[in-house]
Amino acid sequence: MSQTAKGKAASAMGARVAVIGGSGLYRLEQHATVEYFPILTPFCAEPVQLALEHTSAGRAWFIPRHGVEHTLAPHEINYRANLWALHEAGVQRVIAINTVGGITEQMLPGTLVLPDQLIDYTWGREHTFNGGPQATDRHVDFTWPYDGAIGAVLQQSAHMLDLPLHKGAVYACTQGPRLESAAEIRKLLRDGCDIVGMTGMPEAALARELGLRYACLALVVNPAAGMGEGEISAEQMRQHLHAGIGSIRALLLAALPQLA
Predict the structure, then answer these.
(1) What are phi and psi of 223, to 5 degrees?
(2) Phi-psi region for residue 93, left (φ > 0), alpha (ψ -120 to 50) or beta?
(3) 76 Cβ contact partners less than 8 Å away, ≥ 6 residues apart
(4) How far apart are the first and last CA of the chain?
(5) What is the DSSP string of the chain?
(6) For residue 135, how many other CB atoms are within 10 A of its CB?
(7) Full-model pTM
(8) 202: preceding bond cis by omega (within 30 degrees)
(9) What is the spatial distance between Cα 203 and Cα 121, in angstroms, rounded to a whole number?
(10) Does residue 193 contact residue 170 with C-beta atoms inside 8 Å?
(11) Rounded Cα distance, 87 and 79, in Å
């Protein structure tokens, strides 16, 4: 059986939802039984390793965006290979976890955010499947980048857990890996952005091209440049990240039975 066939056979067991883990989230559930499926794609010589986690809330695919050892910077991630592999495995719904900086005053560190819009400021990334032998050959509507039905499930689950979740925000995706200057953040604020991260694009657009329903769940881990006092502290970012990962896991596991 080919590696792709293995992935499709696994998906036949009922796993139709995937979580893409961001910084700090390298497993969906720490003690879940995990099966690994290497999926070959046209965009990388090496297969993409997908994890099928048998969690307490049901089966779900999981992939750590930055690699299991967090070795990939935002501009080095093979977004096309990752999304193609999920599509090959039979995934229909994707929840992407992103750590972000807060631009507007509501976006304090520790805030969980469900954005509904984004602006792409990245450059030089392979951002489409159009062109070449794997071309989708169609212009996709991107008016609303995130799936409202998945967002509604996350909102209901957050309410059930009594977990604050900020609904509605504009995600600014910058190139990285450096953080932004204060002047750049002021520009993003003028553009109407609420949060800023480095991995939201082209991931969201690639998912749309493949017909995957895609939502983003973001965790604010720092005030954006110039929006807090002094320089951005890497240690404070880690503290807010570690404090928020438990809430993210709880929310994902609460939502999973309604999405699987």
Answers:
(1) -70, 140
(2) beta
(3) none
(4) 25
(5) --HHHHHHHHHTTS--EEEEE-TT---SSTT-EEEEEEEEETTEEEEEEEEEEEETTEEEEEEETTTTTT---GGG--HHHHHHHHHHTT--EEEEEEEEEE-STT--TT-EEE--EEEE---SS---S-SSTT---SPPP-SS-S-HHHHHHHHHHHHHTT---EE--EEEE---SSPPPHHHHHHHHHTT--EEESSSTTHHHHHHHTT-EEEEEEEEEEEPTTSSSSSPPHHHHHHHHHHHHHHHHHHHHHHHHHH-
(6) 11
(7) 0.92
(8) yes
(9) 13
(10) yes
(11) 12
211 φ/ψ angles, rounded to the nearest 5 degrees = 80, 20
Q: Which residues pair with 98 in a beta bridge?
A: 218
HSE (side-chain half, CA atoms, 13 Å) at 138: 9
* pLDDT range class, residue 177, cuts 50, 70, 90: very high
Q: Tell me how far apart the alpha carbons of residues 56 and 142 are, in angstroms, rounded to a whole number.
A: 34
pLDDT of 131 reads: 75
Residue type, 63: I
Any residues with CB less than 8 A from the CB of 122 and at least 6 apart, and which? 75, 173, 174, 175, 198, 201, 202
What integer is the mean pLDDT of 39-50? Answer: 95
Contact call for residues 115 and 218 (beta carbons, < 8 A): yes
* Backbone torsions φ then ψ of 245, nearest 5 degrees: -60, -40
Summarize pLDDT for 61-102 with one digit per residue, the tens: 999 999 888 889 999 999 999 999 999 999 999 999 999 999
User: 41 is written with which tokens?
Assistant: 């794609």
